[in-house]
Prior knowledge:
Elements: E1 2-5, E2 9-15, E3 26-27, E4 35-42, E5 45-48, E6 58-65, E7 77-84, E8 95-100, E9 106-111, E10 120-125, E11 129-132, H1 135-139, E12 141-146, H2 152-163, E13 168-173, E14 177-182, E15 203-210, E16 214-215, E17 227-233, E18 244-247
Parallel strand pairs: 1-4, 6-8, 6-13, 7-9, 7-14, 8-10, 9-11, 10-12
Antiparallel strand pairs: 1-18, 2-17, 3-16, 4-15, 5-13, 14-15
Amino acid sequence: LTVVSEWFVFLILSAVLELGAHCELSPVNASHPVQALMESFTVLSGCASRGTTGLPQEVHILNLRAADEGPGQPQRQVTLHLNPISSVHIHYKPVVFLLNSPQPLVWHLKTERLAAGVSRLFLVSKGSVVHFSSGNFSLSAETEERSFPHGNEHLLNWAQKEYGAVTSFTELKIARNIYIKVGEDQVFPPTCNIGKNFLSLNYLAEYLQPKAAEGCVMSSQLRDKEVHIIELITPNTNPYRTDMKVKIFPDLR
Length: 253
């Protein structure tokens, strides 16, 4: 059972309840049946522009950085979600994607409202591959390996010289899910100038981080049903609605 939220602090009780049973709270560990995670969407830096409006293609750059070290194997697969910006219903313009990563990755593409038969070029780092979920989409898409310049500004300048302008540049840590909205909005500035405080709903990466929680586990042979209690404690000062997701998996241990 996995609890996912953006802002909640968790107090978790997990039990097969027995009448009169006593629960001693203690910090949960990896063996606890309930785990709490915080979901966040962010990037490190970036920019967007309308500079490609008069050019034959849009150019979107993703410059990935190594993720923070954690338990388990390094992240090797990324799902890239592509759909148009809100002002565009179906996206028809050719696109070039520069997918730079510090290690070889498998990019899984999921697309919505992108017209079939349109040229789309994916430039990836050495050893990386792109998998297309839609057969029609893959017929007009190409993938090429490239050796990209190091550093944000060097990569941006290289792309501007190669294609004339850049639609978006996003620097982010490697994530399981990356969400990019293609399209050119006239409210964008004329040129792409990378900023540290760049924040746009058009370019986001999703991250899950473990959250501290307390709980207990009680067992009983008298009941044939499990009862899991999850108590969520929110700060009184938070005026915003917070979404919570509960994911349930069978215990295979």
